[in-house]
Protein 1
Amino acid sequence: MMPVIWLIVIILASAVEMMTTQLVSVWFAAGGLGALIACGLSAPLPVQFLVFVLVSALMLAFTRPVVKRALTVKKTNTNADRYIGKTAVVTVAVNNVVGTGQVNVLGSIWTARSADGSVIPLGSHVLVEAIDGVKLIVRPEDRK
């Protein structure tokens, strides 16, 4: 009966792994394979379970950091990043509640939203804090 249980563990862990992209259960499939081999060698149930836990833990400890580094997506800066920290002029009043707002920054027109939710009137100077999709997140510029 135990070989069937270990096969089910392997199949379930593999199925979960196929449905995700984060390497969450492949380690348990390897542990299940180790336990299945131990079962095939007539090891008692506590030994099979110990093999499952040890192989899973060792696979996790030694391979996850390497795999994680290989799968890490590096952020690529775009030309849009150049707008962050720049001063813009409001061309359509920024009002998050009604969903309006437009600014001109470096000669480009962008949809804008207020960082703090305040209404920013037409003609105001604002500072670009961030980019959220196709919208600039802005705050009123401190003019002295």
Note: The chain has a mean pLDDT of 89.
Protein 2
Amino acid sequence: MFQDLLAQLHTLVSGLEPWQQVLALVPAGAIPFIESYLGSFLGSSLGIHPALAIPAAVAGNLIATFLAIALSGRARDAVTDGRRRRKGGATGRDAKPSRFRAKVATALDKYGVPGVALLGPFVVASQLSGPALVALGAARRKVYLWMGISIVVWGIAFGIFGSLFLAAIA
């Protein structure tokens, strides 16, 4: 299914004019699990110069991820403010945390925000891991910083890999 999505994106983008291909990488980079790394790889492997493909895919991923982090931060603020207003801070909720939340919490304890941000794209989309870090109480500035670094680094690495891949098969 995921390979079909990549194949469809490849077909869609390859049929566009060069300037449209670059613009198409912005929303492609915003798609969870495509993100900056596969978006920049897709663009570079289509023959779009990496100096154009990488920033386009990175921009889409940064916008989507930072928006998700901002929204989750506001939601966390609303929940914690509500708890403070109630006496004793009781939530009335004894539910067991989800498997995803437990996984992110364990990774946060083990690797910290930098580790989760840099390794996270291989486990879960940055649009999910960034907000999860904020929801678990990680400092927002640190999450923004490290998610941004991760998105840029992986975008550059896979964009270069896409160019090398294209050169190898050409």
Note: The chain has one domain: 24-83+97-169.
Protein 3
Amino acid sequence: MTKFITRAATALGILSVSAIAAAAAENCETRGALDVLYCDANGDLVADTPTDPAKLSNPDTLVFAYTPVEDPAVYADIWAPFITHLEETTGKDVQFFAVQSNSAEVEAMRSGRLHVAGFSTGPTPFAVNLAGAVPFAIMGAEDGQFGYKLQVFTQADSDIKTVADLAGRRVAHTSPTSNSGNQAPRALFPDLGVEPDKDYEVVYSGSHDQSMLGVVAGDYDAAPVASEVVDRMAERGLYDTADVRKIWESDPFPTTSFNLAHNLDPALAEKIKEAFFTFDFAGTKLGDEFAGVSKFIPITYKDQWAVIRQIQGSNGVEYTPQGLAGK
């Protein structure tokens, strides 16, 4: 039976300093950007599965989380058909954890309390390097296509026509680690005529939903947002498309990555992957919510997140707790 974990019911935190120190003392010849808790002997840029059976995790109850959204309760219901399928495939109970922020989601997996998770595009590298997340799937179309675009919206009657016109304006970014909501604009907008924080005021809204609703309400002059999010908002009638105008969009980026905790028992990990790759979206609330999506597609962090790592690298992003918090 699907269960729903609230923030009040679950306290999540990072591992203690002593545990980190002990992990750092272990022999690890290849780590790359990974935290001292993890090793990467095969060079695939993600944490290796522990070779010591005693360090493998095979919980009676799997905890699943989806990237932070404006109304987590709604998404608990949307994900219910998949969670049922995950339970049937793995033989485990599954709990849905409603995360309140990207930081909380990363810390939950790092602490061992979160086993399967969807991380937004920008936070995915932080989850990989700080929490040992292993991306393996992404939502896609029947023909294998996937991705979303960074789009910039303003009010329908605004005099803003181009990205360069954002100069001197109040612009909503979502959160420091967000790809389309912050990192990509900082990397791409200078070539389009404006530098965030220098040429226009950046105000962090907290989410793509809030950025878009803030533009509609006139709280912000414009906002860079993820196409997939604002499309779903429009489909649910959360804003009137006639009230806004799109002034620019990027080439496609990978969307939410679905990840396993690196230390899951390999047999369990394979069952979880089986659940993803055999799930039928047709006729489910999940399929209705994600229009154009028909299946989960296999991906790797090394390949599909190369462009995101490039964007973050150009912004000087460091995969540290401070970087995750935007400090």
Note: The first strand starts at residue 3 and ends at 5.
Protein 4
Amino acid sequence: MRIFLAEDERDLNRLIVQKLSSEGYSVDSCFDGREAIEILEYTHYDAVILDIMMPGADGFAVLKSLRDRNDATPVLMLTARDAISDRVKGLDGGANDYLLKPFSFEELLARLRVLMRTSFGRVSNDLSVSDLTLDTASHVVKRAGEEISLSAKEYALLEYMMHHAGMVLSREQIEDHIWNFDYEGGTNVVDVYISYLRKKIDSGHDIKLIHTVRGRGYVLREK
């Protein structure tokens, strides 16, 4: 899934980006609230992480700009201030969750999974299509009970397709959600990773789950 982070503490920003990227998330980030507002006007994300105290515009202003556009993207707010009034202000302003600094990355990841479950209307970390299963907490993927080893990017692609099982996803949709602004790879990167997934997911199975829809993109479904 694609995450946007606005955090002005540069070391913390870098660490969060590294951790989320290692978990398979595609992450864009900035250090300024005004820049965050501009980016969020034109780019869709699956979740947004906002620090409250930032130059340019604070996290409350960034959140307001999102909700004023009726953008329902889940928002997790970070704050070093433990004032109840700040949390009430953020939650009443449309934030979905709060995390106090300092925090553990394990808790950050768990809270993001909760936001994702809520966003996709799910009640657990388990995704399944036919005999293919994926656990978003452990990142364990199995087909017919046998565990499959995937790279971080392969996992991210599969999770995205499983969240949208039965929907035809264009190459542009996939690229926008799995790769961030800094990506400078080839134009056929989606096709390459779909090929990687097919070898690992469908090879040796009579029922193929990853299908090409000519002229439109790819879909994960049983038939």
Note: DSSP finds eight helices and eleven strands in the chain.
